[in-house]
Amino acid sequence: MRKTWAPVGRTPIFRHSYSRERISAISAVTVSPLGKRLGLYFRFHSTNITGVEVIGFLRHLLRHLRGPIMLLWDGGTIHRRVIVKEFVRQHKRLHVHRFPAYAPELNPDEFVWTKAKHSLANGAPKDIVELGRRLRSTIHRVRHSQRLLWSCIHASELPWP
Fold first, then answer.
1. Pairing mode, strands 24-31 and 38-45
2. Range of 109's domain?
């Protein structure tokens, strides 16, 4: 829900189904080695993301990206799971750098999701399938726009050349 406008004296009504279904997401903003091109990789899941899904996502990145991969990770417990640490240790192309404990303002990926949530706000999809369609459409729009991806990088407080 986001703020909205309505005529004076007419409270807006938002209908929803109170469904407990969910879509969990894992994603990464990528920067080419020369810093010229950005990418966005993502996966959606119908359950909470565990270390197994993190490893699956890292395998996906390893298949699609060449050379060393620097992972800038937040302090989430999911990234500190033993199986995730072991997977990273076994794959020398992966180099982990951690953000401070709670610093979403440093993470460009947070701004991707801010854009997605903004475009989905105040919507009322009839079911999880429609929500998934809307979410994919929104994320694809960001993914295919270098301008939007660069805005996520520049909105973060990461030192950037």
1. antiparallel
2. 24-155
